[in-house]
Amino acid sequence: MELEQFNGILFDLDGTLVDTMPLHLASWELAASEFQFDYDADWLYALGGVPSRKIVTIINQHQGLALDPMAVVKLKNHHYQRWLPEARVFPAMLELLERYADRPMAIGTGSSRVNAQRVLQSTGLNKYFSVVISADDVVRHKPEPDTYLLAAERLGVAPGRCLVFEDTPIGQQAAMAAGMKCVMVVQGRPDLG
After folding, report:
1. Which of 12, 19, 146, 167 is catalytic?
2. Which of 29, 111, 120, 144 is buried most, with the most CB atoms less than 10 Å from its CB?
3. What span, in angstroms and rounded, lies between the C-alpha atoms of 9 and 190?
4. Total-model pTM
5. Is the confidence at residue 1, as pLDDT, over 70?
6. What DSSP line would sit under 101-153, residue for residue?
7. CATH domain 3-19+87-190 topology
8. Is 12 an annotated catalytic residue?
9. What is the pLDDT of residues 4-54, one digit of tens each?
10. How far is 51 from 84, CA to CA, in rounded Å?
């Protein structure tokens, strides 16, 4: 796939640009222990792109619980933010950012604005992005297209002229629903086939 054919390049953040998923999963594991719900790393990873408060609602539905989403998310985020300085940018993705730094680029993440901004600042990636769309900016989250449609709108680029980089099927569904092409990122490397 030739990136030159696209006017805008959109990126998921966690697990796509930055190796934060192990930190998220470790934080979920501690929250599971403290709130007594079943922890399944693979299942939680597959929900990448879904805001944490919605994940707690899904946990409640699947496990027949009545956890307070705000309390669970507060604790999960406390652990996550403690470990955030350990987060590293995937080298292959940094190389891609540097190569296309002259293009309009945006972040479309299921993370809260606070968490997204902390990740971008702590890794130095904030200099690449004039537009950051977080879970706080849309009502309908991934796999709905709203995150990526808003990112394209703020960049001033037609959705069909945007390319998205994602690491989860939910994110890929969001990109495709927005009418955008999507490249999957596997273990920090884009599958440009």
Report:
1. 12
2. 111
3. 13
4. 0.90
5. no
6. TTS-EEEE-SS-HHHHHHHHHHHTGGGG-SEEE-GGG-SS-TTSSHHHHHHHH
7. Rossmann fold (3.40.50)
8. yes
9. 899 999 999 999 999 999 999 999 999 999 999 999 999 999 998 889 999
10. 17
Residue ranges per structural domain of the chain: 3-19+87-190, 21-84
Separation of alpha carbons 50 and 59, rounded Å: 12
Domain 21-84 has CATH 3.40.1710: no
Statement: residue 189 has pLDDT above 90: yes
In 52-111, alpha helices (H):
52-63, 69-83, 91-99
Cβ-contact 8, 178 below 8 angstroms: no
First to last CA, the chain: 7
